[in-house]
């Protein structure tokens, strides 16, 4: 049996994608090997249009010497529409082995040219059905088919949202189709294989049409009809017969229209469904539609139609309520146990006309009552009117809610308690493949990681929204860019962001400005358009997708948009190297804001200029990747001048940052705007600010994503860890201890006394502060990449052992090449590091504080281990270069200083370096602390010195700190 295998073939990131319109699709695969250090040396890729027949090929690469196993671009004859292409791959490795052919995979093209659309846009005749009426439209058509059906595909879209039915059955499982794009420039259509839903003889096809994002209410101002004021459908069904003939069923004036049981359906407000009005069998062949109305053709374009790009929106998980209860106000409420996004599927037996109302909310107020104040104008209410015919099951069709709690009114006999088994929470979001996992020894941090993931799921409903519950749910650019790196660890987000970035490019303003939200529904109504750190999504997001997936094509697609944003900034004001004009959100929701202000204290021009430099740097880097030599020169020079202007404007001659805020210091460090002694001073001052604030942050949306990174990268990792583990307000764990199951919009969305932040803007599912997840993956667990070789082709494993605050951390990530894992575990005696590196990659592994002679791998000395190419001892530890495989390293624990106290509070044991022990015995023989049973706390030496029973002078303290720093022992942990 061949131990070298090609697995998990993907086309444009997807497994067997049905209905794509990419003319040169890209193929990727992963390699499975039983030998360490496996690298691909060559590949062969074959494409056929006949399944399991690779004799008559469409394309054969032949033997290609290359280690490339991702994004191999199809380079055969021009693809044909509506055709399935089968492909397979084999490889050769560096050990001279040849794999078997992979299992066959496929992709299928959709309509590659606009001229192939024969369907017409149709809508109910406005003389018979009011086009502005609220009920959802039903459109249908009966048709006859011959015997011998061999295949059938339907290509369908609508404005706003649609559901398609065939012969009485739903087509596909996708929800909220066709998704939300910049409708006037781009509109997705979906492809479905309906071969087995058709039959010889009589058939019928039907489609429901709701307002959705296209013409429904969007934004807090309650605007409607932003894209258009008519719902319409476009359906094209191709039926192929065994004799080679084909039949075409399309939307045209032969269709008929009616309204049905959905009397109202809105994204924000919910749905009203009257089951008594159901038209049984309305999408079946023998339904009598004699009283249905006519349809008319709409004048809508076909030119901007694109095949589905994003992952489909689906029900990805179901939850059962954990309880029901009656609030102090007498409301009957279900608790789903999790702040989720989706809908409730309800089962009921009830007399005809029974009206059941479900209202959705995220939290209860401090008295335990149902709270909807933060929803603003969004009703989030679903009403079902029973038809009274046995068991009825219902879930809303064209809306979604953000909620943990559901207030139920009108359910039969609910005064005796709600039957929990009659309610199911259906979690809805873009069906991204989970790729990342993080856990550690602190259960609160593990809950934080779960909150981050749930926040992403709830807000990645076709677009990256800010919140999923109130009258907003918009694709805020600032939120997306600060979170994207975390998002791409958690889930496979390439198709998601590819689609969204194409909408950003489509909606970008003629002067290069970038709207606050994408798709853009605000620019025309609020008068402002572009803000630093928000518009920078145009640059940061495509660059991040390139880094994580090696997607050079998307980077190339977006490059002009990236340049246009930087040139937009350059043209602001009268100093092309400083951005000090226009509207900016600043450090949004920072805690150092003035009273009654959302904008933090960091000067907006400092933030704007810092991001100007950052985006210019990334455009320069993109130009390097895309081999645009002249642009490399231009943007390198521009970057140099922006940095010089930043220093002149915001850094004093003595090296102090002009703005005394945490965020100002974070940005200067993160974006490499300072260097040398100035950089050291600014990092030191940032650290001191945090210590003086009792290890609490004051940063908002702009500073928070980078805060822990700059601390860890500038010698203050322990401070970063204290920020992560801080559990009093403001901190990440404060909300966790308050029972949060998603990320909050505000650090104190629920205040310590149980009261709420203002109703005006208080989402309990707002992923921006979840950007800490990126640091948890890359720094705490140490799973990172060498960015000069994107997509984790060259991996960096550099865990930051943080004992005793954490005794282990683990991260795993399913990269384009395969599974990467980094795990460290700290015991009293040893450090254990486990690493998994996928085939066709290499890794640099740092074992912190290790000595080369003391490191064992699977009980063997390093020198004798297969797969380790080099091993050197540095001041930071042992640096290894390794090939693919699983490695298990163990070495003695010399990390940190642990001080243990007995019940009488006397020092009884010291576990650390001998020099550190001697120092403490010399300078602090009387260290004591009041014991608290069952708790472990960590103190810095400065905090120890402040304790009443620790007789240390400032001079003695400084001497201890200096000597311990030399030993890289910067803190003492006290178990009391």
UniProtKB/TrEMBL annotation:
Q: Which SUPFAM superfamilies match?
A: Six-hairpin glycosidases
- Asked if the record carries the keyword Hydrolase, the reply is yes
Give me any GO biological process, just one. carbohydrate metabolic process
**Gene3D superfamilies of this UniProt entry?**
1.50.10.10, Galactose-binding domain-like (2.60.120.260), Immunoglobulins (2.60.40.10), Maltose phosphorylase, domain 3 (2.60.420.10)
Which chemical reaction does it catalyze?
Hydrolysis of terminal non-reducing alpha-L-rhamnose residues in alpha-L-rhamnosides
Domain Alpha-L-rhamnosidase concanavalin-like, first and last residues per copy: 327-414
Key word Transcription present: no
What are its E.C. numbers? 3.2.1.40
Protein name, entry field: alpha-L-rhamnosidase
- The organism encoding this protein is Parageobacillus caldoxylosilyticus NBRC 107762
């Amino acid at each position: 049996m061949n131990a070298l295998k090609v697995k998990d073939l993907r086309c444009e990131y997807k497994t067997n994608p049905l209905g794509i319109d990419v003319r040169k699709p890209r193929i990727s695969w992963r390699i499975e090997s039983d030998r360490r250090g496996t690298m691909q040396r060559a590949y062969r890729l074959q494409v056929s249009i006949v399944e399991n027949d690779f004799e008559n090929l469409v394309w054969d690469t032949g033997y290609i010497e290359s280690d490339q196993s991702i994004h191999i671009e199809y380079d055969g004859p021009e693809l044909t529409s509506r055709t399935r292409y089968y492909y397979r791959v084999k490889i050769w490795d560096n050990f001279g082995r040849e794999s078997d052919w992979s299992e066959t995979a496929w992709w299928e093209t959709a309509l590659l040219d606009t001229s192939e659309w024969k369907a017409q846009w149709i809508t109910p005749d406005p003389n018979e059905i009011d086009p502005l009426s609220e009920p959802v439209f039903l459109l249908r058509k009966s048709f006859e088919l011959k015997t011998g059906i061999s295949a059938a595909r339907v290509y369908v879209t609508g404005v706003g949202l649609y559901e398609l039915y065939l012969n009485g059955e739903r087509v596909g499982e996708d929800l909220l189709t066709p998704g939300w794009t910049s409708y006037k420039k781009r509109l997705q259509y979906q492809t479905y294989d309906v071969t087995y839903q058709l039959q010889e003889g009589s058939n019928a096809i039907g489609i429901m049409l709701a307002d959705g994002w296209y013409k429904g209410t969007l934004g807090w101002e309650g605007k409607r009809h932003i894209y258009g004021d008519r719902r319409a459908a476009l359906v094209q069904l191709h039926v192929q017969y065994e004799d080679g003939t084909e039949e075409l069923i399309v939307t045209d004036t032969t269709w008929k229209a009616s309204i049905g049981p959905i009397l109202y359906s809105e994204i924000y407000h919910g749905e009203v469904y009257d089951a008594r009005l159901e038209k049984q069998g309305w999408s079946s062949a023998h339904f009598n539609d004699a009283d249905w109305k006519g349809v008319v053709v709409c004048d809508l374009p076909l030119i901007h139609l694109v095949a589905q790009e994003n992952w489909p929106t689906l029900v990805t998980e179901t939850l059962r309520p954990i309880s029901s209860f009656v609030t102090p106000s007498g409301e009957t409420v279900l608790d789903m146990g999790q702040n989720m996004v989706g809908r409730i599927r309800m089962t009921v037996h009830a007399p005809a006309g029974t009206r059941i109302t479900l209202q959705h909310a995220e939290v209860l107020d401090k008295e335990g009552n149902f709270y909807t104040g933060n929803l603003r104008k969004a009703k989030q209410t679903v009403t079902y009117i029973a038809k009274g015919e046995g068991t009825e099951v219902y879930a809303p069709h064209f809306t979604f809610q953000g909620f943990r709690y559901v207030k139920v009114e009108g359910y039969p006999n609910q005064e005796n308690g709600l039957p929990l088994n009659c309610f199911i929470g259906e979690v809805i979001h873009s069906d991204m493949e989970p790729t990342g996992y993080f856990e550690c020894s602190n259960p609160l941090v593990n809950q934080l990681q779960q909150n981050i993931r749930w926040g992403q799921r709830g807000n990645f409903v076709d677009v990256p929204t800010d919140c999923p519950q109130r009258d907003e749910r918009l694709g805020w650019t600032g939120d997306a860019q600060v979170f994207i790196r975390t998002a791409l660890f958690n889930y496979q987000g390439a198709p998601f962001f590819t689609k969204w970035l194409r909408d950003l490019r489509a909606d970008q303003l003629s002067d290069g400005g970038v709207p606050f939200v994408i798709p853009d529904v605000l620019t025309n109504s609020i008068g402002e358009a572009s803000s630093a750190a928000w518009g920078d999504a145009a640059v940061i997001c495509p660059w991040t997708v390139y880094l994580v997936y090696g997607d050079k094509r998307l980077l190339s697609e977006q490059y002009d948009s990236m340049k246009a944003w930087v040139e937009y900034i350059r043209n602001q004001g009268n100093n092309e190297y400083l951005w000090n004009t226009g509207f900016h959100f600043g450090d949004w929701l920072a805690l150092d804001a003035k009273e009654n202000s959302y904008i933090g204290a960091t000067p907006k021009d400092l933030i704007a200029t810092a991001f100007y430099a950052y985006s210019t740097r990334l455009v320069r880097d993109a130009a390097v990747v895309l081999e645009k030599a002249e642009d490399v020169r231009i943007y390198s020079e521009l970057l140099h001048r922006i940095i010089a202007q930043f220093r002149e404007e915001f850094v004093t001659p003595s090296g102090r940052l002009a703005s005394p805020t945490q965020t100002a210091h974070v940005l200067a460090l993160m974006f490499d705007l300072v260097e040398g002694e100035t950089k050291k001073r600014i990092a030191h001052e940032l650290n001191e600010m945090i210590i003086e604030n009792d290890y609490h942050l004051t940063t908002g949306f702009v500073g928070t994503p980078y805060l822990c990174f700059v601390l860890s990268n500038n010698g203050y990792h322990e401070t970063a860890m204290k920020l992560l583990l801080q559990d009093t307000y403001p901190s990440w764990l404060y909300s966790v201890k308050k029972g949060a199951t998603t990320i909050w919009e505000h650090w104190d969305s629920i205040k310590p006394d149980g009261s709420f932040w203002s109703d005006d803007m208080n989402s309990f599912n707002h992923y921006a502060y979840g950007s800490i997840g990126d640091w948890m993956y890359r720094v705490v667990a140490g799973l990172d990449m060498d960015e000069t070789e994107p997509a984790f082709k060259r991996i960096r494993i550099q865990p930051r052992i943080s004992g005793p605050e954490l005794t282990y951390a683990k991260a795993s990530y399913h990269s384009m090449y395969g599974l990467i894992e980094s795990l460290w575990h700290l015991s009293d005696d040893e450090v254990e590091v486990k690493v998994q590196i996928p085939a066709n990659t290499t890794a640099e592994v740092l074992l912190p504080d290790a000595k080369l002679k003391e490191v064992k791998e699977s009980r063997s000395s390093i020198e004798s281990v297969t797969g380790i190419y080099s091993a050197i001892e540095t001041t930071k530890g042992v640096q290894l270069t390794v090939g693919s495989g699983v490695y298990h390293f163990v070495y003695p624990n010399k990390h940190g200083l642990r001080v243990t106290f007995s019940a009488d509070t006397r020092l009884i044991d010291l576990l650390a370096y001998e020099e550190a022990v001697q120092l403490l015995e010399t300078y602090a023989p009387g260290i004591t602390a009041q014991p608290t049973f069952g708790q472990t706390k960590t103190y810095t030496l400065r905090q120890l010195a402040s304790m009443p029973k620790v007789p240390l002078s400032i001079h003695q303290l400084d001497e201890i700190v200096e000597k311990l720093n030399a030993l890289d022992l910067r803190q003492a942990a006290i178990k009391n």
